[in-house]
Amino acid sequence: MTKRREFIQYAGLASMALASPALSFASRAERRPFEQVPQRFAERPMRLEGDWPSTLKGKLYRNSPAMLERAGFQHSHLFDGDGMVQQYTIANGQVSHRAEMVATEKYLREQAAGRFLYPGLGSTPPQPKAARNNDSANSANISVRKIGKRLFALWEAGSAYEIDPDSLATVGRVDWGEALTHLPFSAHPTIDADGQWWNIGSWIYGGQALVFIYQLDQAGALKRFKRLALQQAGYMHAFCVSQNYLVLVNTAHLYQHKNEGNFFDKFQFDQQGHSQIVLIDKNTLTIERTIEIPANFVFHFGNAYELGNELFFTMAEYRDAQIMSRGLSIKETSVFGPNPVSYPSELCQYRIELNSGRWHKSGSGLSMEFPNFRQTQPFSPQALVGCGQRLNHGGQQRLEQLLQINPHTGTSDAYTFAENVSLDEPLYIQDSRGEEFIIHSFLDRQQNESGLALFKGADIGAGPIAKAWAGGVLPQGFHGCWVSA
Ligand SMILES: [Fe+2]
Known about the structure:
By secondary structure, the protein is mainly beta. It contains two helices and 37 strands.
């Protein structure tokens, strides 16, 4: 099943032309997964297929921008849907599902008003109110993470929201400290080897280019906070962590203040400019080095690690930012349209010589998004799991794959789903005996039904060993986490 393949070597040049979609949500369903979504799903058992191991016990949480419509207005960018946290409970060979909206201040005000009140990031409702602070439009819709005993629904331009891990009731907006109210806290907190967490917040307003660094202890309490000035106001969604560094990619998608337009309209991709790899020393919280690379765009990273005097990390790299401006809209130009448009990424590994700052890049030949690694071994070379497609097949391929690749060895494996199946982010999980599985939700557009698929981690090419079906369409989302019972 496993194939060994050579990475494509780059000599400091921009990515080659790629020809297939990474994020593909092509829709033939009668109801698209972001339309007419109920505001809660009561708990109910899912229909099972195959054998769900009795040793697998826990909850899969996923966040989705679920509510894009109110009072006859539909937001036109997926990022503007109010967040809904879905909870899949797996125990005793059974699977159940439930979901609740995150009761953000935005959601509660708009519930009371019966309409959307605030401008979104990519689209604006009629007669919008002026945003009062960074949390006015906070829809807490990108990710959900458990840190210590606390579960957080996360956005990226404002505060985290804490939610109850069992009932999914919203506990409230999180203030990490008195002077930190409403500051951006990204949707991608990243674990350190000792169980502490790091996060960033991007502040690109008022002509500033700042990044906020948060260090949280194992229980999810703030330990350190630092503001750092960057050289350009590039869009940053996530980052990665190695033994000694926080690794940021400050993309060439640059923010420039304008009075008109939506938030995303204020970014312009500077094709002639550069992206910058920023290495931040974890001990001193200072920028040790900024390395220019050709202009690129990235949402997501694999893990990072240092071997000797070299730092390795992977990212799902785009040639430009059209995935953001056009691909994640829900218009004709999007990955959701009736004739979906491709916005391919390529999973690439970067190797940095720490003494000189020289960089080298290798392409995997995989258009892979939502890369994930084993949280228990964050600094080990290892196989990443994600979803997408192999590149270079003429651009006709529309089948989505669960992909696994070890960027260090080039070893990869894949499972190809049937036509009209869209995959969500896959995660590594373990059962009570320590056996590894991969789990992800999906939408079967032919059947008009969402589900969960479970693979053995050691052999994804063999296909899912079990599935669970929801009996209808659930919102598709971005990120989630697994919490063992
Ligand atoms: Fe993300």
